[in-house]
Structures are given as C-alpha cells and as structure tokens.
Amino acid sequence: MTSTSTLSRDEQVKALQKKDARRRRIPLLPALIFTIVVTQTPFVFSLYFGFLKWRGNTTAPREWIGFKNYTDAFQNMFFREAAWVSILMTVSAVLLSVIFGTLIALLLDRKFFGQGFVRTLIITPFLVMPVVAGLVWKNQMFSFNFGVINWVLNQVGIESREWVSEFPLWTIVIVLVWQWTPFMMLIMLAGLQGQSSSVLEAAKVDGASASATFFQITLPHLRPYLELGVLLGSIYLIQVYDHIFTITGGGPGSTNIPFFVNQRSFGAAFAYGSASAYSILVVIAAILIANFGLRVLSGLLEGEEA
Amino acid sequence: MAEVKYEAASRIYPGTTLAAVNKLDLDIADGELLVLVGPSGSGKSTALRMLAGLEFVDQGSIYINGKDVTLSPPQDRDIAMVFQNYALYPQMSVASNMAFALKQQGIPKAERMERVKEAAKILDLEPYLDRKPKNLSGGQRQRVAMGRAIVREPQVFLMDEPLSNLDAKLRVQTRTELVDLQARLGVTTVYVTHDQVEAMTMGHRVAVLDHGVLQQVDTPRRLYSHPANLFVAGFIGSPAMNLIEVDRQGDQLIVGAKPIPLPDDVASDLRASDSKRFVVGVRPEHLALAEDGSPSTVVVVEELGSDAFVHVEMPHEGGSTMVVVRVDGETSIERGHTLNFDVNGPVHIFDAKSGVRLGSDPSM
Ligand SMILES: Nc1ncnc2c1ncn2[C@@H]1O[C@H](COP(=O)(O)OP(=O)(O)OP(=O)(O)O)[C@@H](O)[C@H]1O
Ligand SMILES: [Mg+2]
C-alpha cells in the first residue's frame, strides 16, 4: 500500500522534473542548431567528399564510390608511411614537451628574484609563428655551414653534419618540443600553484623525501593538468603543417598525414575525394592517440595508490 | 616518548623586524599535554612550526629528547602534526593517508595495514578506510588527521587548532576524546589554540603567549588563581576578570567605600613600590551582595539558569567601572536596581604600568 503510493509519487516527481527540464531547454534550441551548423558543416562536407571519386584536374563527373577511398588509403604505401610519421611525431613531441614543461614548471614554482621576467622569457617560443620558428631553426641552428649547433660541435672537435637531411623527422620534433614546452609549462605551473602548501608540509612531517613527495603527492595532483596538456597537445600537433613545410618541405620520412593530404589535393594530384577521406582519418587518429595517451597516463598514476 | 625543550628560541620572519616568537623558553615533560594559547597573531603557530621544523629558528635552540634538532629537517624529528585544515592527501584513500608515513619508513604493507586498522578502530574510522577525504564530513576528516598522526607512534604530537573547523557541540565532544586518547597513548603533545576554555580544559599545563613573548606557563588552576600579569589575568577566565584601575591612597587601594583588604605579601610590595596607579582584579565569583558593600547600578542581567551574570556600574575613587558579578540563578535582580556589592574572595593587584602582579611569585 505505502510502497505503491511512494512509487507513484516518485514517478510524479520524475515527470515533473522532465517537464521542467524540457521547458528550460527549448529556448536554447536555436543556439544549439546554429552551433551545430557552424561547427559541423565543414566536417560533414569532408565526410561526404570522402565517399566520392573526385579529381580536380579532369572534367570527369564526381562519382559515389563508398569506402573505396578509405580502403585505398590503407593500401597506399605513402599513406601508411605518412600515418606512421604522424603518430611518431605527435606522440614524441607531446610526451617530450609535457616532460620538459613539467620539469621547468617545478623549477619556476618557487619564489626567486626576477621570477616574472624569467617566466616571460620562457613563454616566448610559444608566441613565435610556426613558420618563423621553422625558418629560424633551419637557418640559424641546423644549417650545415652557418648553424649554431655545428659551430658548437666544431668547438669541441666534432665534425659538422647535415642535421635536417640526416634526421628530418627528429629536427621537426625538436622544433615542435621547443615551441610546445612553454605551453605545457604554463598548464603545469597552474596545477602546481593550486596545490595546498600545508599538504606538502604534512608530507615533510610524515618523513617523505622530495622524490616521494613528487611521485606520490604532486604527480597525482597534477593528473588532470597532465591530461589537459596531452589532450590539447595531441589535437594540435597531429595537424602540424607549417614546420614540415619550412624545415624539410616534406622530405623523406617527414611527411605526416596533413602534409600528405595537401600534396594529394592541391599540391599535385588534385585528388579531392581521397584527400577528404584522409583528413577524416586524421580526425579519427587524433581521437585515438589522445585516448591512448590519456589511458597510459591514468594507468601510470593509478598504480601509485596505497 | 620524549621531552621537548625550547631554549631562547626566536623566529623573525624575513622582511619583518619584530620577532614573531621572541626568546621562548619552555620545558615540556615526557607525556605532557601542553597547550599554547594566546590571541590571534601571538605566535602560537610559529612556535609550533619551529618545533616541527617547518619554520627556521633564527636564534636559540630546540631539543627533542635531549637531542638538538634546531637545524634538523622535519623528516628527521619523528614528530606528527595535525594541521588546522587537516592537510589530508586529497588523491589518497583514508587508509593510504594514514599509511603514508609508515610507507616512507619502508614498513611492509601487511604491517602498515594492521596498524592502520588498529588506529581506525580507536577512531571509529573503519567504515571509511576506502573513501577519499573529499567524501567525508568535517569531523571524520579531523579524525583521519588524528589517525595519520597516531599510526606513526611518534615522539611528539603537534596540533594546530585541530578543532576549530568543527561545530560547537562536536568540538566539546572531540576535546574530551582527544584528552582521553592522549592520556592513553602517553605521547608528549603540544596543542595550539586561541580558545582559553579549550586550553584550560585540556592542558596539563598551559603556556600563554602574547606578541611572541611567553607570559606564563602553569597548570590551568594556578593560571586562574595566580595570573602573573595583567595580560594573563584578562585573557584567562570567562567571563573575564574585572579589572578596576585606581590611584593608591597612601598604602591602600580603595574600591567603593572601603579599602581592599590586602594579604601581607601584597601589602608589603605595595609599600615598596613607587608607582601611583594600580589595577585591582576580582573574578566575577569573588564579588557578592553585601549589606555594607558599595552601592552599584545594575545595567544588564545575563541569566544562565544555574547562575546569572550581573553587569553593574561600580563607583570607586575617581570614577566608576563596569564589573560583572556572578550570583545564584535564584536571586531575582533586574535592570535599574541599585544593590550593594562587596569583595568576598581573593583579589589580584597589578602595577598599572608594568602589568606585573604584586605579591609572591605565582610560580612558587
Ligand atoms: N610567513 C610569514 N611572513 C611574515 N610574517 C608572518 C608569517 N607568518 C606569520 N607571520 C606573523 O607572525 C606573527 C605570528 O603569527 P602566527 O601565525 O604564529 O600567529 P598565531 O598565534 O598562530 O595566530 P592565529 O591564532 O591567528 O593562528 C603574526 O604577527 C603574523 O603576522
Ligand atoms: Mg595559528
């Protein structure tokens, strides 16, 4: 008796809440539709083009070919290589910049004379335009004849090398890390400053060494910040184009998918259909890589409990 | 188990000229519960943090168990601290929080868990061992902070206002539990509070600080009956001691109509002193209705049931002062009445300028 009456009361409450929710959301609908149109249209077009056979340099009509562009992609040796370069470039640049960013943030997270000035200095690489960064590194640092790196090595008796053509992928990764470390540093610094100082004091009193405090208390505290850094870093770095264009021009082993997509479409082949399909694959890859990164990170931090 | 000793220990924060703790001399016996009390900014937390090793000792030394720890880092002092905001490790479960210090000592996991369970049983925390601190109530968090300290079985417990975030009722209850726990464990404890009631009810001895200077260390009873100076007299006791400032009349102090009767040692100190103004201190319970007392006007009556506090305007040589009198709850007194009051208990006489108490040294 009582149970049925409470049940019906529960249902009533639920119905009321639902109605209330609907009433509050309906006025937001136009904004939602606008947002979807503006943000999703390009993606929907890419998706659609990805199913077409469409060559920009012929007059042949577009033709619906289903998943053929996608299956072709995986059979295309150049695409597979570009995919591998994308993964290598993104993962290593994100990981290295997160690690260096965290280390620098740890150094800067204390009071010292000229703190503000040093922080500003460290942030500058992030403010430099990618093309400029690429050119500066290529001509001032890596250059065979005039590069700083070779000059320094010559001083200690090591011979000059052609850095860019010998290590095309890694020279690009170095520049990416140089540009993205400050960004990661900023995120980590925000995280460190959000940590309660009395928690760190409690750890000291509890007899924890500096490294124990870092790995068992600070790092778990930084977890959401690390996740944010990895996520944003992956999304941006998988789309890198300018650096490749200026440093190696897509030379052997340094063409990632976006660069390859561009070559396929505007660069030479005018294969708009397959280029669209590849760009969809980049989006999927970005989601996969970011997810993978977050998984790995969670796994690492989860293991620290107890 | 350990004694603690502050020897002329001072802390002067960088960028300041006044010492936050000024030449503190304090001996704390093994197993003692010593309370540091004082108004806000008096240097209680600083003194405690100096003992913890979290604050640099600029002058003097600190000893734990006879060993000079002045320059040792907190890790080497074998002390446990309960922070005002508890400072629990937010990403760890209650059990991991409590086991953290043991883990640092390299104690094997099985033993760690055993000791955590034991402490959890004492503190009624068993059902919460797997929870994160953010999912606990304030009182439970306080107990976790206590648990984190007691699993370690340290030489000294340090507590900085550990009860100030609890509501009034829980605070009184936890206070009793804490005293009981400390007595059972027998660990030397330094407890900081700004609440003199907490200090009086908990401490074996109480050290009163003001502006970084130690005013008096004594048992709660002695502190109440023999305050060493005006500051302690005004700080300890609720409602506060009545302090009436008067000019001396020869070798007598007159409040109301009659001279205050003075014990011999006080009278001789008064004769020997060349000061002009003195403060007569009388606790509310040492004033009473008396036929031949001084007539005073009742301003406010605070009924507490068992007794009542009557605020009266008491005239004396050169003016009048508001004083509080404790009377039996049955007595019917109303605002506007004029009644006669007289001293019927001990009085405390202080030099108005130096604040020093007249009569024999209270620490003797
Ligand atoms: N980091 C610091 N730098 C400079 N001065 C400080 C610092 N910490 C405390 N002080 C000063 O030292 C004095 C004592 O501070 P302390 O925190 O020990 O007071 P307290 O007795 O614990 O007060 P409360 O009851 O408010 O906690 C205060 O005047 C305070 O302003
Ligand atoms: Mg304090």
Main attributes?
heterodimer, A: 306 residues, mainly alpha, MetI-like fold, 14 helices, B: 364 residues, alpha+beta, Rossmann fold, OB fold (Dihydrolipoamide Acetyltransferase, E2P), six-stranded mixed beta sheet, binds adenosine-5'-triphosphate, binds magnesium ion
* Total discrete domains of chain B: 2
Number of helices of chain B: 9
Total beta strand runs of chain A: 2
Low-confidence stretches of chain B: none
Task: Describe what this molecule looks like in 3D.
The complex is a heterodimer of chains A (306) and B (364). Chain A is mainly alpha-helical and 306 residues long. Chain A has helices at 2-25, 29-49, 68-75, 77-108, 115-127, 130-142, 148-155, 163-166, 168-193, 197-205, 210-237, 242-247, 257-267, 272-302, and strands at 52-53, 63-64. Chain A has a single domain, classed as MetI-like (MetI-like fold, Orthogonal Bundle). Chain A is built from 14 helices and two strands; from the N terminus they run H-H-E-E-H-H-H-H-H-H-H-H-H-H-H-H. Chain A has a two-stranded antiparallel ribbon with strand order 1-2. In chain A, 34% of the residues are buried. With 364 residues, chain B is α+β, with helices and mostly antiparallel strands. Chain B has two domains: 4-231, Rossmann fold (3-Layer(aba) Sandwich), CATH 3.40.50.300; 242-351, OB fold (Dihydrolipoamide Acetyltransferase, E2P), CATH 2.40.50.140. Chain B has nine helices and 19 strands. In chain B, the strands form five sheets. In chain B, strands 6-7-8-3-9-10 form a six-stranded mixed sheet, with helices on both faces. In chain B, helix 2 packs across helix 3 and helix 2 runs parallel beside helix 4 (138-150). The structure holds adenosine-5'-triphosphate and magnesium ion. Adenosine-5'-triphosphate binds next to helix 1 of chain B.
